[in-house]
Amino acid sequence: MPDRFSPIRVWITAGVLVAGFAGLHGLSHGEPIALRVPLEQFPVALGDWHGQDQPLEQRIADATGADDLLNRTYRDQSGRSIGLYVGYYRSQRTGETIHSPKNCLPGTGWDPVRAGRLTIPISPAPPITVNEYLVEKDGNRYLVFYWYQARGRVIASEYAGKVCLVLDAITRNRTDGALVRLFTVTKDGEDKARERAVNFVQVLYPELTRFIPE
Questions:
Q1: Can you tell me whether residue 76 is helix, strand or coil?
Q2: Is the preceding omega at residue 124 within 30 degrees of 0, hence cis?
Q3: Would you call 168 helix, strand, or coil by DSSP?
Q4: Coil, helix or strand for 28?
Q5: Would you tell me how many other CB atoms lie within 10 Å of the CB of residue 147?
Q6: pLDDT tens for residues 129-158?
Q7: Model pTM?
Q8: Where in the chain are the domains?
Q9: What is the rounded CA–CA span in Å between residue 120 and residue 122?
Q10: What is the pLDDT of residues 72-96, one digit of tens each?
């Protein structure tokens, strides 16, 4: 049976978020939280993968608003590649907030095909849930994984991320956080692309925890 009250819940949630963000900018800014280690020192070798930096144009880097960022292509011995982007924000109180790939990618010519979630086992850490996003550009399809990593949490949902941001601003005086996004082409099939991306995340995530503050 359809939930007749779901639109009401949506509006209530939206109202809470708007009020929270209005209050967010009125609170004491606190101290911006720096990365544990600058992203330029992120390992070039991750398991069987070897990375090469892909510097962003300055205008694009400025548009992200990130205080530190990493844009790198990793390849394995067979030549398969995965693009990795990490953007870190020391504070999100001054108008520089993390932009959702669901908004940014379509704005740069990527057409969305399908969106969902995927839970990835991380040994020996607990599993993490990420966004799985299939996009298309210039006749090629790409599988995108992304998540928000901040203040000891990994969050897939944009809404949950904003709620946690407001709560942490109030209770912990912190609004730091990172967007982690990776993509790989699906020419060898979506299943193989997903397996490749999952394996990459499993070697990537333990390294990220050494850089991003909890």
A1: coil
A2: yes
A3: helix
A4: coil
A5: 24
A6: 999 999 999 889 999 999 999 899 999 999
A7: 0.85
A8: 6-208
A9: 6
A10: 999 999 999 999 999 999 998 766 7
